[in-house]
Write a structure and sequence with these properties.
The complex is a heterodimer of chains A (about 325) and B (about 240). Chain A is mainly alpha-helical. Chain A has 11 helices and 5 strands; from the N terminus they run H-H-H-H-E-E-H-H-H-H-H-E-E-H-E-H. In chain A, strand 3 and strand 4 form a beta hairpin. The longest helix of chain A is centred in the first third of the chain and has 31 residues. The chains are: A mainly alpha (about 325), B alpha/beta (about 240). At the A-B interface, strand 1, helix 5 and helix 7 of A face helix 1, strand 4 and helix 7 of B.
């Protein structure tokens, strides 16, 4: 068990975290402006409506990140002896459910719009005394929504990897991919401009399928996270090499006969249990266990809370299966 | 991997120039192209002062607008009289190019057909007889309204008590009616607004070049349209006398 109170990122990552927070504040401010502008110009375009809803959903990850940043680091107490780390995972789950649900709805809505074969009417608006087609304004707003999003995404991605924050990571990726949404919607509007009424509905459908796909991927990740899956790297591509390193570290300790490590993610950090079978005749077992624990914590900042249990034999739960996964 | 922002901007500007020259927006069903130099099928339903079918030739503010538009297009107008329902169905079926009749933006047909931007906002006001004091509100006041109109509901919504009369001038006290009605009958118009309607033209959905053409006409000829309204009302007044 960890005796320390508040969870703090190691010093070298504190500044990354601060940078990330600042970027997320900017993201929120920027997205609010986009949502307002889009609402003003979207008219009866299905593609614009879909992009607008996607941007509204895009507000959830930064807000979640900022709130979780405050709460997840609170010190454990009697009511919450394991701390508040899971707040991150729960927030991620909530966000992914929202995204997935919205994706389902939008795909359905988009298909309906396409099947109804409705031709969207796009008006003109008076600017400086001239009649300007709203389609141009929509395109301008879409470009405005895409470029800062992409820039923010590129800036946030490396930070997310360094502080191992899944919420920030998925948010950054989504921002980066905004050019797809904006591009599709632009093509939809230009299509209408050329008289292809279906271009709008098709663009909307493409965007909504993308949202659904993102929602599904995130939902899967959020669920497996809460199911105490073995930690993976923040991009979910492979198991975190730390798990293997930790296992090796324990096996190499001279007083240990054999050891089995299992870890799970709790937000940004890892909790876990290590079952050790000490060599016959080992003295000062509790000191040795304590030393081993400190060594483990020094291995990586992500290893946060380990329970080391001396046993006679390695328990059955931690058998070949587990070993082979590493 | 950093974005080359200069290249992106150049690309976008180039694209923009290309698009501007492409004559956007276009009509999926080529309405604007079809009517030029050809027939303009216009559905018309009675709604004075916008459309007036009481004489042999259609008259009214919107009729004047359509005649001017037809001239710009070098098109021959073919009027189709009918109820709003029939006309809207025909419009939806693309058998008409335009439907007029004092149609408002809030029409329930908006889900089936397209509407232009409003060319005029008409307001139902509270009017008081000449010389009477102008009230600030109509809470619990009795207000004269024309029998069989929705004006009674507007009065109720603002807290007043509608009194239904055949002719507004019969009522001794505040009345509710459109600004031109009140003016014609010699009432003073107060600042109390009961209801706003935005007058539009109805077109087939999605004919964006056609809509743009009509909206441009409406914007360019705002003053003329206002003058037509005044003229039509004077004409009405003279007729009544």
């Amino acid at each position: 068990m960890r005796k320390t109170g508040k969870f703090e990122l190691p010093d070298e990552l504190q500044s990354d975290h601060q940078k990330a927070k600042k970027l997320e504040y900017w993201t929120i401010a920027f997205l609010i402006s986009v949502v307002i502008l889009m609402y003003l110009v979207m008219g009866s375009s299905q593609a614009m409506k879909t992009a607008w809803l996607e941007d509204m959903l895009g507000l959830i990850p930064p807000i979640v990140f900022l709130i979780a940043s405050k709460i997840a680091v609170k010190a454990p107490n009697k009511g919450f002896p394991y701390g508040y780390h899971r707040v991150n995972s729960i927030a991620f789950l909530v966000g992914s459910v929202a995204l997935f649900a919205m994706g389902c709805f939008l795909v359905f809505d988009g298909l309906l719009a396409l099947l109804k074969a409705e031709h969207p009417t796009i008006h003109t608006v008076i600017i400086f005394g001239k009649n300007i087609w709203m389609g141009w304004l929509m395109i301008l707003v879409l470009i405005y929504s895409a470029i800062p999003a992409i820039i923010l995404g590129y800036k946030k991605l490396p930070l997310a990897k360094s502080i191992h924050n899944k919420v920030l990571f998925t948010d950054a990726k989504a921002n980066k991919a905004d050019y797809l949404t904006a591009g599709a919607a632009c093509l939809g509007i230009i299509g209408i401009g050329f008289g292809f009424w279906w271009a709008d509905a098709v663009a909307a459908l493409i965007i909504s399928v993308d949202i659904l796909h993102d929602g599904f991927t995130q939902l899967k990740s959020a669920i497996t996270d809460l199911m105490n899956r073995t930690p993976k790297t923040v991009d979910e591509k492979k198991y975190d090499p730390i798990v293997k390193k930790l296992q090796e570290m324990f096996n190499e300790l001279p007083w240990i006969e054999s050891a089995e490590v299992r870890l799970r993610e709790e937000g940004q950090v890892y909790f876990g249990d290590v079952a050790v079978v000490p060599k016959k005749g080992t003295n000062n077992l509790t000191e040795k266990i304590d030393e081993a624990k400190q060594k483990a914590y020094e291995l990586h900042w992500k290893i946060f809370d380990l329970m080391i249990t001396p046993t006679k034999d390695i328990p059955e739960e931690l058998t070949e299966e587990l070993r082979s996964n590493n | 991997m950093k974005f080359n922002q200069e290249i992106l901007i150049i690309y976008l500007v180039f694209l923009a120039i290309l698009l501007m020259r492409c004559n956007i927006p276009r009509d999926p069903d080529h309405t604007l192209q079809k009517v030029k130099g050809d027939k303009l099928m216009v559905g018309i339903t009675e709604n004075r002062p916008w459309t007036d079918l009481s004489s042999a030739e259609p008259k009214g503010v919107e009729v004047n607008m359509v005649e001017a538009i037809a001239q710009m297009l070098n098109a021959e107008i073919e009027w189709k009289e009918g109820s709003e329902t029939e006309l809207m169905e025909a419009l939806k079926a693309k058998e008409l190019h335009l439907v007029i009749g004092g149609i408002t933006k809030k029409t329930p047909w908006s889900k089936h057909i397209g509407l232009t931007n409003p060319y005029k906002t008409t307001i139902v006001y509270i009017g008081v007889p000449q010389g009477a004091t102008m009230p600030d509100n109509i809470n619990n006041m009795e207000v004269g309204v024309t029998l069989g109109t929705a004006t009674a509901e507007y009065v109720r919504k603002k807290g007043g008590k509608p009194v239904k009369v055949i002719e507004l001038e019969e009522f001794n006290g505040p009345v509710a009616g459109y600004e031109w009605e009140l003016k014609r009958l010699g009432f003073q118009i107060t600042a109390i607004k009961l209801h706003e309607s935005k007058r539009v033209f109805a077109v087939t959905r999605g004919e964006n070049a056609w809509v743009m053409f009509l909206e441009k006409y409406m914007e360019d000829h705002k003053n003329e349209i206002d003058q037509w309204l005044i003229d039509t009302l004077e004409h009405e007044e003279n007729r009544k006398v």
